[in-house]
């Protein structure tokens, strides 16, 4: 049973702030995913949990025990590295048994020959051998126990790394982008394997990735990070449907959420020349009257119709535009449309894409240059302040 | 397709270079099996004469070659073991730790390689006299080790630089102490380089002459290099005996090299490719 609590955890490298005041509560048995782009501090945070990096300030608790001052081996956490970090000079069996051998290690094990004999003896003892065999069976590694890591494929090496973590039966599993060195097909298979492992073994998992698909499919909760700050901490569904700010909205979803510039006027959302009735769910944001806002709407909440098609159904509105790009992705097509009377938000690089993305089922016959009307279903739309990028919620005033 | 004529030229070049390298060894073997009457004949004997193999029996009987070889082996193996033991930890520290004066220390280690042995003989002699290390094989091992440790430290540092840090971190998480990481993980991973470094230290100890000649005077503690040189006299030099001892002096070194050769080759290419 292990819950993790991070209180005001920060990390500085000289004057550079890598992690800034992170507070997280991870319940026992949870699968927490630390998600974010490269350099956002997610791996640093994981390494601080493991004890591989010191904590500049704040506290880390495992259950009721404060662990941030303890060495890595005393934290009862196992770590799976991106590069597998297997011991190349040891067989798979010895790699998996190594943490168990270390538990019984005596100083004289350093003496050549005598140490080798003692380590072999521990490895062959029934309790260690049984545990190693059982772990190998779970991960389908039984046939490879006497092989060396260099003779294994990437997926097999990753399973050995998982085995080395599992055999310790730790309270917490920490995983640092363990699938990013694998090819796409193997990654999908291993993703399912790790999820099953979590269900079977139990324990608390903290998993670092920059891949939102991994995060959405594996995590029970996600902490999305940027520049050392947690942007949002919630379930995958919360993060997808109710992004806390435009950064989260853009990060999650492929293609990402469309952000269309507009303003709230007289209880209506005004996008360019079009006026949309404020949906019931967004009524709380009516206080933002007159202020510039961004309407966040997922590509799958938009549908395409022929130009000039009647659009104003209940809770829906149509916007005129021109198709600029069509991408066919098997079961669905992604259509980029340049809106005629409304503009979209600047992206992270400061460029104005000026387009919205729409996903349609099947193979779309549209071609670039076609005039279309875009019908928006606002039932799951969200509003953001254009000034701060924060989501508008009930009772929250816009920043001046 | 390779042009046949350029292929032939290549083969010829290889054969010439090979002959240049092996002929002195062949000549040594032939001379060791030549009668003393034929040593200075007008037409040199190009093939070994097996009937002269008693040269070797005579050499064993009338010289202390076995004792010299034993002493050389003690000095070479002692130098090798001590050098490796003393070099591993500094190499690890230079590779992994950040500390004040690290660059300076590295330079000083290199600088010791610029000093010729002959320059250090007199101060070493004075120090060894005070420490009662003169005329001991232990003293000789120490003197040789002082010369091999810096170079081995640098070789091992290069190899440890190539060991991924994650492996050490994995060992830390698995419960290894720092010393445990060095001995259980890093040393086995850099074993090929360790073998290469051992060869360097062994041959330094095996071949060394200046210290062995100066710091050891007792007949029983002579090393083979000094023993061999003792035959070169002002009036006469029994060349066939010198060559017989030369063969005996070379053989153990060749055997040692053959034993570790597999690792040396791997060590010299370790880290050169991403793997």
UniProtKB/TrEMBL annotation, chain A:
Chief place where the protein resides: membrane
Subcellular localization(s) per the UniProt record: Cell inner membrane
Listed SMART domains: AAA
Protein keywords: ATP-binding, Nucleotide-binding, Transport
Entry-linked Pfam families: ABC_tran (PF00005), OB_MalK (PF17912)
ABC transporter domain: residues covered: 4-252
GO cellular component entries: ATP-binding cassette (ABC) transporter complex, substrate-binding subunit-containing
InterPro entries per record: AAA+_ATPase (IPR003593), ABC_transporter-like_ATP-bd (IPR003439), ABC_transporter-like_CS (IPR017871), ABC_transpr_MalK-like (IPR015855), ABC_transpr_MalK/UgpC-like (IPR047641), Mo/tungstate-bd_C_term_dom (IPR008995), NA-bd_OB-fold (IPR012340), OB_MalK-like (IPR040582)
PROSITE patterns, per database record: ABC_TRANSPORTER_1, ABC_TRANSPORTER_2
GO biological process terms on file: carbohydrate transport
Membrane topology reported for the UniProt record: Peripheral membrane protein
GO molecular function, one term: ATP binding
Cleavable signal peptide: none
Membership in a protein family: Belongs to the ABC transporter superfamily.
Protein name, per record: Carbohydrate ABC transporter ATP-binding protein, CUT1 family
Annotated source species: Bosea lathyri
From TrEMBL, chain B:
Main location, first listed in the record: membrane
Topology in membrane: Multi-pass membrane protein
Subcellular location: Cell membrane
InterPro entries, sorted: BP-dep_ABC_trans_perm, MetI-like, MetI-like_sf
GO cellular component, one term: plasma membrane
SUPFAM superfamilies noted in UniProt: MetI-like
Residues covered by the ABC transmembrane type-1 domain: 69-260
Transmembrane regions: 12-30, 73-93, 105-128, 140-160, 181-203, 239-260
GO biological process terms on file: transmembrane transport
Keyword set, alphabetical order: Cell membrane, Membrane, Transmembrane, Transmembrane helix, Transport
Pfam families documented for this protein: BPD_transp_1
Top-level division of the source organism's lineage: Bacteria
PANTHER family in UniProt: INNER MEMBRANE ABC TRANSPORTER PERMEASE PROTEIN YCJP, MALTOSE TRANSPORT SYSTEM PERMEASE-RELATED
Family: Belongs to the binding-protein-dependent transport system permease family.
Name listed for the protein in its UniProt record: Carbohydrate ABC transporter membrane protein 2, CUT1 family
Taxonomic classification: Bacteria, Pseudomonadati, Pseudomonadota, Alphaproteobacteria, Hyphomicrobiales
